[in-house]
């Protein structure tokens, strides 16, 4: 919910309950409704299941559709869109990049609006609009018209990840966030599976192939937007499907996150703190370095597979295989993170991608099946984003600061994806060796950045633990009850613990 008014702390002293005026629903609800909360109780587990059944399917579907809609161009490429719209190789590459210019153009305005409108209703409206834009691809007849709808698509879709991150942080504990983000991020693989299946099915039509694909995706996305409007909630206090007692339990579940659950008004001090936080720039660099190979694979993935010697029908089905293996890889990385750390699991997926990329480069063209195996291993690299996202959901507090990090996340993602397709030059086809070497280099760079991020979090945790030990007798009670739901940043909350 949108925080429009200032809060007034009424004679608050350390240890007192925080009474507020204004529109801080979470604090107001906790001040007037008390429950004996036990995270292991049957009631708490029932509320978690209820949240899972409502929130996870909606985030999963909208995130999957965002990827399918954006990636639909790559399937259209092997279904005749290049020939029907007279696209040159360079124009097609630019269509892969232009959608991310839309990201650049829409990111800051979207971030501004997100702090002023209800997140759930804003996302549903944007989902319906981008469904219409996807369907409009079907009536495009040249590069100019396709470039226009691709730009609009990026400018609209840019809201999806920041809102998904915010909602996940509002409903789930830091420990639960890893699993939940992994679940909705498996859509990176499921999008390839569903996209490959739909493309394979529509390819058997005698005409209106790529046009039909865009119309189908657009219709599904529009209907999803309508469902989001009626059923999605941005925070526990806005969830109409929770009773008052269940809302309190839902809030108590995430109290230990200390990242809040609501959207507050814009704060200049928090923006300034964000700009002085070294992690902001690491997030940008990580998303550029991981977005660059992603942009290339998004636009040229099926083309790379076709270059291994497969026909169109086989290529669409093999793309489903690579997507399915990414789903499995995400689940395996989740298990690895449970027994090691998020940082280690993220770096492991990138090293696996390096092996796959090296296989595509080193295995001779006479053994295309083995090269396709390398492609499958390379396709595991997006899994590292799961752990980058959980660093944001569980490692950044303060409404404006969270939106600042989300904005920079999308900016970096856009820059990387703009550059990525440009590494695939017509004269390098069909092997695209320079592009593959570029991918390999950026996989290694991303692994180094992710390691640095994890080390920073670990170092900060150690320093805070030492300070807690030194001051536990004097400052143990120097806090406000319910301060976990105030608009405080992770730097301001001295007991904040960073995920590693």
UniProtKB/TrEMBL annotation:
<keyword id="KW-1133">Transmembrane helix</keyword>
<feature type="transmembrane region" description="Helical">
    <location>
        <begin position="92"/>
        <end position="110"/>
    </location>
</feature>
<feature type="domain" description="Major facilitator superfamily (MFS) profile">
    <location>
        <begin position="55"/>
        <end position="500"/>
    </location>
</feature>
<dbReference type="InterPro" id="IPR036259">
    <property type="entry name" value="MFS_trans_sf"/>
</dbReference>
<feature type="transmembrane region" description="Helical">
    <location>
        <begin position="55"/>
        <end position="80"/>
    </location>
</feature>
<feature type="transmembrane region" description="Helical">
    <location>
        <begin position="122"/>
        <end position="139"/>
    </location>
</feature>
<feature type="transmembrane region" description="Helical">
    <location>
        <begin position="375"/>
        <end position="396"/>
    </location>
</feature>
<keyword id="KW-0472">Membrane</keyword>
<feature type="transmembrane region" description="Helical">
    <location>
        <begin position="439"/>
        <end position="456"/>
    </location>
</feature>
<feature type="transmembrane region" description="Helical">
    <location>
        <begin position="280"/>
        <end position="305"/>
    </location>
</feature>
<dbReference type="InterPro" id="IPR011701">
    <property type="entry name" value="MFS"/>
</dbReference>
<keyword id="KW-0812">Transmembrane</keyword>
<keyword id="KW-0813">Transport</keyword>
<feature type="transmembrane region" description="Helical">
    <location>
        <begin position="344"/>
        <end position="363"/>
    </location>
</feature>
<feature type="transmembrane region" description="Helical">
    <location>
        <begin position="214"/>
        <end position="232"/>
    </location>
</feature>
<dbReference type="Pfam" id="PF07690">
    <property type="entry name" value="MFS_1"/>
</dbReference>
<dbReference type="InterPro" id="IPR020846">
    <property type="entry name" value="MFS_dom"/>
</dbReference>
<feature type="transmembrane region" description="Helical">
    <location>
        <begin position="317"/>
        <end position="337"/>
    </location>
</feature>
<feature type="transmembrane region" description="Helical">
    <location>
        <begin position="183"/>
        <end position="202"/>
    </location>
</feature>
<feature type="transmembrane region" description="Helical">
    <location>
        <begin position="151"/>
        <end position="171"/>
    </location>
</feature>
<feature type="transmembrane region" description="Helical">
    <location>
        <begin position="403"/>
        <end position="419"/>
    </location>
</feature>
<protein>
    <submittedName>
        <fullName>Permease of the major facilitator superfamily</fullName>
    </submittedName>
</protein>
């Amino acid at each position: 919910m949108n925080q429009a008014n200032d809060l007034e702390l009424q004679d608050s002293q350390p240890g007192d309950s925080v009474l507020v005026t204004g529109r801080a629903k979470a604090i107001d609800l906790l001040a007037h409704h008390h429950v004996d909360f036990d995270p292991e109780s049957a009631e708490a587990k029932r509320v978690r299941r209820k949240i899972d059944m409502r929130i996870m399917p909606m985030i999963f579907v909208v995130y999957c559709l965002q990827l399918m809609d954006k990636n639909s161009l790559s399937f259209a490429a092997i279904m005749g869109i290049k020939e029907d719209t007279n696209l040159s190789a360079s124009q097609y590459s630019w269509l892969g990049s232009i959608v991310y210019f839309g990201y650049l153009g829409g990111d800051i305005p979207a971030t501004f609006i997100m702090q002023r409108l209800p997140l759930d209703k804003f996302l549903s409206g944007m989902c319906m609009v981008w469904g219409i834009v996807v369907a409009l691809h079907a009536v495009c007849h040249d590069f100019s018209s396709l470039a226009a709808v691709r730009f609009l698509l990026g400018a609209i879709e840019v809201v999806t990840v920041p809102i998904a991150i915010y909602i996940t942080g509002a409903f789930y504990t830091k420990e639960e966030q890893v699993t939940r983000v992994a679940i909705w991020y498996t859509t990176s693989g499921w999008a390839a599976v569903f996209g490959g299946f739909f493309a394979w099915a529509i390819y058997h039509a005698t005409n209106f192939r790529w046009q039909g694909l865009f119309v189908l995706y657009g219709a599904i996305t529009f209907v999803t937007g309508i469902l989001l409007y009626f059923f999605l909630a941005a925070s526990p206090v806005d969830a109409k499907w929770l009773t008052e007692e269940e809302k309190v339990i839902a809030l108590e579940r995430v109290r230990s996150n200390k990242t809040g659950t609501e959207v507050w008004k814009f704060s200049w001090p928090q923006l300034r703190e964000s700009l002085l936080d070294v992690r902001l720039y690491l997030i940008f660099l990580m998303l550029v370095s991981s977005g660059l190979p992603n942009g290339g694979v998004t636009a040229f993935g099926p083309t790379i597979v076709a270059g291994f010697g497969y026909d169109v029908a086989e290529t669409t089905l093999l793309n489903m295989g690579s997507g399915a293996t990414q789903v499995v890889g995400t689940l395996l990385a989740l298990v690895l993170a449970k027994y090691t750390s998020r940082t280690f699991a993220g770096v492991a997926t990138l090293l696996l991608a390096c092996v796959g990329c090296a296989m595509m480069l080193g295995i001779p063209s006479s053994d295309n099946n083995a090269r396709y195996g390398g492609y499958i291993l390379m396709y595991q690299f997006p899994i590292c984003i799961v752990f980058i996202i959980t660093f944001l959901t569980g490692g950044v507090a303060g409404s404006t600061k969270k939106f600042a990090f989300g904005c920079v996340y999308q900016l970096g993602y856009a820059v990387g994806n703009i550059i990525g397709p440009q590494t695939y030059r017509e004269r390098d086809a069909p092997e695209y060796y320079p592009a593959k070497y570029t991918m390999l280099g950026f996989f290694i760079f991303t692994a180094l950045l992710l390691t640095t991020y994890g080390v920073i979090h670990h170092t900060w945790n150690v320093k805070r633990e030492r300070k807690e030990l030194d001051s536990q007798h004097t400052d143990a009670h120097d806090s406000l009850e319910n301060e976990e739901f105030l608009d405080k940043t992770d730097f301001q909350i001295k007991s904040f613990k960073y995920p590693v």
